[in-house]
Amino acid sequence: AGGWSPLVSNKYQWLQIDLGERTEITAVATQGGYGSSDWVTSYLLMFSDSGQNWKQYRQEESIWAFSGNTNADSVVYYKLQHSIKARFLRFVPLDWNPNGRIGMRIEVYGCTYRSEVVGFDGKSCLIYTLNKKLINALKDVISLKFKTMQSDGILLHREGQNGDHITMELTKGKLSLLINLGDTKTHPSNAQINITLGSLLDDQHWHSVLIEHFNNQVNFTVDKHTHHFHAKGEFSYLDLDYELSFGGIPVPGKSGTLSRTNFHGCFENIYYNGVNIIDLARKH
Asked: Where does the record place the F5/8 type C domain (predicted)?
């Protein structure tokens, strides 16, 4: 009656919570079993969207063991350094009071997570035609999240009149941003930029992507890793069409040396300069 206490206290116990829908979790708090000598001194936090495929909460890129309780009744509260977006949580005790058993009372803090999700079957793509009035040649910001089990696929493509193009593509579980400035016949090879970030991104977990382009400065961020670079040539005046395609290239064989595999998986919250692309698609 005083909280959760498994029949056997060993390293194979866990307490799982189903929040009913994807939720943004910002903090957790624990106590020991009420009026007992049962409390957990350290634990891991795992999270999942499906209840099948689990990921561990990390901080500073290392596995993070939470310090638990030192008695049965004091509350130990942790504000998470970065919020978790998930439906399922698992608390996994690592150590507990040597003179007692595993015992936990738990509080989870957060709010409803608002999201727009669209699925791609590997044969489709989503084309966004830009409003020419809203175009600013000096600034472009694209953000999205994706999850997939496929190691290859095109996430984003934008074509130009004279052979210019920008492509973001998953190749062997890594994400590459390829910027091709013009026709290679008229431009030297240094007009081509290829940046690769991340690995094992085909793990069926959500990964976030951000491309920021101000003048000739480009920031490419995958999850929490950012690559800053300066684009040579006339990048701020790229002769690009007023069209972005997500999930594939609409006309096959149009440009260069791409793997040609369309994306198979899910996108969430696609934004181009603050415009919600999935919401626009839903409204036709």
From this structure: 1-111
